Amino acid sequence: MVIKLDEKTKGVIYSYVRAAAAAGLAVYMAGGRDVRAILSAAVSAVVPPLLRWLNKNDTAFGRGSK
What we know:
The chain is mainly alpha-helical. It has three helices and no strands. The protein has one domain.
């Protein structure tokens, strides 16, 4: 099964991935070797792009954007 994504959806997904990767890497590079801490930071980093998606007034990624 192949899922086709439009450019806007790809942009949103890349935003989530970038935020999660940056946070996880920051914890690791700061000396955190606990996998739970790294994953917690990565999951927490997804909150800002998620909030953008929930915002109907956000013209880039909000639910009301075109």
